[in-house]
Amino acid sequence: MTKSKTARVFVYAIAISAATAGDAIAQSPATAYDFHQSYHIGFDSPEAWGLKYFASASLLSGLQPPEMQGESRRTGAVTIGLEAGWIPSLDAGQQRIGFGGTTPEDLNKAPAFVRPVVRVTLPWKLTALVAAPPPLTAFGLTPHLLAFGLERPIYETQHWMVGWRGYGQIGSAKGAFTCPKEVLAFAPGSTQNPTECVGLSADVATLRYAGMEFQLARHLDRLPKLVPHVAVGGNFIAGVFQVHAPIVEGLDETRLWTHGGTASFTGGASYVVTKQIALTVDVFYSPLGVQRSRLVNDGLLNVRALVSYRIR
User: Which of 65, 92, 226, 246 has the most CB atoms within 10 Å of its CB?
Assistant: First the structure.
């Protein structure tokens, strides 16, 4: 075994040992890590932080189009929309999530998350919603994600509305996270190519979640077209990172999986442009714990917008 390979395997063994919080590993450090095995990682580990960060970026939360005052809900009515969410660029320290937080990954791919959203009005004041980004490759990413939800008002007056939404997501996003093309020009094991990549990776990040939130909206007499709102939610995230990276030692097909809970908060406003068209803008925040030198909160704060059109 070469010196660089021994060091690589040793670091991986230490990272997995720490993430599993004491799970027994019978082999010695040099042979404990298998590049074709599945490992559970702690929800606060750097690798898990990356999964919950991008799962949170795709949460189907907030962005509630306003109900037009004085209009009754019609079963079968359809509202179509386009949602866009800013994905903040991560610094070098935040991208260092591989090997238990010692190796950088290429996480700054897409600057925004865009997807169509369809709402259908159902009986009993229920509304079903479905959202999915087009499965097209852009910025080095190919998404195969489907989010869905069910919502209804649970308390309404002339000025106030309290609503509930349950939602979930299945699917994944594929990209070269561990071995992007930028590192292939450098020698495997060098500072610029610490993962020892010899080819472009085809890694898959599975971003599944289920959650619910409660929303509060206010109709203003003086500004009838403007509807401010806030929401608070709780989420269960189940993430999987499947490595598929050609490296010096062969094909790394490590599978890392994690699960845990997060909270989310949104606040914003909708503006009724016409009877059919509305614009909604929200600020979203989710605190996310991560164990680096110590346990810290490195949450996601972004801005999201939705343009919706109600079909009569």
Answer: 65
Look-up of token digits 């490195």: 298
3-state SS of 140-192 is CEEEEEEEEEEEEEEEECCCEEEEEEEEEEEEEEEECCCCCHHHCCCCCCCCC
Look up residue 99 and give its two tokens.
Answer: 């090997």
254 burial (CB, 10 Å; 0-12 / 13-18 / 19+) is: buried
Phi-psi domain of 63 (left: phi exceeds 0; alpha: psi -120 through 50; beta: other): left
Largest interatomic CA distance in the chain: 75
Q: What are the pLDDT digits (tens) for 77-104? A: 899 999 999 999 999 999 999 877 788 8
pTM attached to this predicted model: 0.85
Which residue's entry shows tokens 């990954």?
105
143-189 confidence digits (pLDDT tens): 999 999 999 999 988 889 999 999 999 999 999 999 999 999 999 98
CA-to-CA distance for 227 and 159, rounded, in angstroms? 10
* Alpha-carbon span 135 to 204, nearest angstrom: 14
Domains, the chain, ranges and CATH?
39-311 (2.40.128)
| 9 neighbors 27 (Cβ within 8 angstroms) | no
